Amino acid sequence: MSWNNLHPGLVMILFGIIILALPEKCRKYLTLAGSVCAFCVFWMLDSHSTLPFKVTDNLTLQLIDTNGVSMVFLMVFVSIGVINAIYAVDLQNKWEAGITCIYAGSNMGIVLAGDLISFIVFWEISAFTSTYIIYARHCRRSSRAAFRYVLVHAFGGNMLLAGILVQIFHNGIGLANLSGNMHGAAFWLILIGVGVNAAIPPFNGWIADAYPEATIPGTVYLGSYTTKAAIYALITFFSGTHMLIYVGAFMAIFAACMALLENDIRRLLSYHIVSQLGMMVASLGVGSEIGVDGASAHAVTNIFFKGVLLMCAGSIMKATGTCKITELGGLRKKMPITAFCFLISSMAIAGFPFLSGFASKALIMESLHEYGEGFPAIMITIAGVGTLLSITLKINYFVFFGKCDRQVKVQNATNSMTTAVVIGTIMSIVIGMKPELLYQQLTYKTMVDPFSIPHIMEYVAIIAGGAIPFFFMLSIMKPHDEISMDFDWFYRRPLVKIIEALSKGLYRVFGWFDRHVLHGVQFFGTGLGNPYLWTEKSGNLKIKSMSFENEDRLIGDVIQVIVALFAVMILISIYVIKM
After folding, report:
1. Residues in domain NADH:quinone oxidoreductase/Mrp antiporter transmembrane (predicted)?
2. Where are the domains of the chain?
3. CB 88 within 8 A of CB 222
4. DSSP letters of 256-314?
5. What would the 3-class secondary structure string for 304-328 be?
6. pTM of the full predicted structure?
7. 524-537 pLDDT, tens digit each
C-alpha cells in the first residue's frame, strides 16, 4: 500500500481503539496524535487514491473515493478534528476520548466511501458512537436523551438500510444520484434515512433534545460531524431535487424562530444548527454547480464558526456551571477572550461582511437567484434576521455585555480550550477576508464577488432590520425559562400512549395465560400425583370399584389399565422418534 492510499478515517478509528486499550495517562497524547495523523494522511490523498477491500470473488468494496465533494468535506473534518482534540485534551476520560476518535473517523469514512455497503457500515458506526458520546455525561438526563437519540437514529438507519438494499438489488452497490427517480422506493427510503441525520422536519427534534445533554467536548464533536456528513449524503444522492429548496428554506426560518424562544445557550445553538442546515439543503436542492458549491462552502464555514460558538458555550458552562442566559451576565470582563471569539463567530453565522458566513452565504443566495427561486431566498434572508436576533444580539448582550441580577462566580477556562477557540475564530476571519481561498477548494471552484455593493447592502439592511427592533424591545427579547414544543411532540406523545396500551394489553394476555396455565398444571399435577383421586372421586362405578380403599377391587382390571397406558406411551414414543 502506498502512502497516498492511507485512509484518514481508519487512522482515527485505530487511534480510538488504542486509546481504549491503553492506560488513562496515554489518552492526552494519543487523542491529539490521532487527529494530527489523520490531518497529515488527508494531504497525501490525491485523485488516484484508492483502497479496495475484497470481500468475496464477486464483491469488492471501495473504501476511498476521492471525488470533489468528498475531498471538501474531508478537508474540514480533519481540520476541525485537530481543533476539537486541542479543546478536549483536558476534559475527557479515556473512554470518551477513544469513542470520539472512532466517531470522527467513521464520519470521515462516510465521505470517502465509494460504495453503498461501505457507506452504511460507517454510517452505523457513527450512530452508535455518537449515542455513547451523549450518554458519557453519566446523568439521568443524558441517559434518557441517549435512549431517545438511539431510537430516532435506529429508525433512520433502518430506513436507510432498506433503501440501500432496494437500490443494490436494482442498480448495484455504486453511489448514484437518485433525484431523477422520485417514484422509486429507494429514493424515499434513503431520503428519510438521510433526512433524520440532516434534521429535516419532522425529524429535527433530536438535535435540541440530545446535543445539550452531552459532555462539554461531546457537544462540540457532535456539532461538527453527524449533520454535515448527512449534508454530504444529500449532495451525493439528492442534489437537484427541487422540493428540497423549499424544505431547506422552511428549515432555516422555522429553526431560527425556535431559537428565539430558548434560554439555554446550547439548545439555542442546536436549533441554529438546523437553521444553517436548511440553507445548505436549499442550495443543494438547486443542483447546479454553484448550488453544490454553495452547500459545500457553507458546511465548511459552519463547522468552524458553529464549532467556536459551541466551544465558547462549553467554556461558559465549565467556568460558571450553567448555560442558562437568565443566570449569566457581565462575562465580557471576566472571560474577555471567550467574549471576543463568540462575538466574531456570532457575526460570522449572521453573515456579517468580511467574515466566513458572508462568503459562503453569497454562493447560496446566488444559486437561488440564478435558479429563479426568489421566495426561498426571501425566507432564508428572514432566517438570517432571526439568527442575528437570537445569537449575535441576544446572547452577546445578555451574557457578555449586559448586567446580571446575581453574582456569577467564574473559573478560568483551560489553556487548551482557549487555544482551540482562538484557532477556530482565526479560520472564520481568514476565510471571510480571503473567500477565494475557500472557493478554490470547492468541487466546481465557483467564484463570485461577495463584496459587491448590492450584496453588502443586503446584509447591512438585515443587520439594521434586526438590531433596531432588538434594542427597542429589550424587555420582550429578554430570555425566560419556558418549555418549547417541537415536531417531536407529535410522535413522542402518541408513541408513549401506544407503548402504554401495548404494555397493558400484553400484561393482561400474559396474566390470563399465567392464571389458566397454573390452574391447569395444578389440576393435572394433583390428579397425576395422587392416583387415589382417579378412582375414589370418579363417577364411573367400574372405575370407582378400583379404589385402593375397596378391598373388592378387581386387581386384574387395574393391571390391564396400567399395561394399556404403558403400551400407548411406547407407541407414541416410537412415532415421535420416527418423525
Report:
1. 113-381
2. 1-233, 239-480, 488-528, 530-579
3. no
4. HHHHHT--BHHHHHHHHHHHHHHHHHHHHHH-SHHHHHHHHHHHHHHHHHHHHHHHHHH
5. HHHHHHHHHHHHHHHHHCCCEHHHC
6. 0.85
7. 666 555 655 666 66
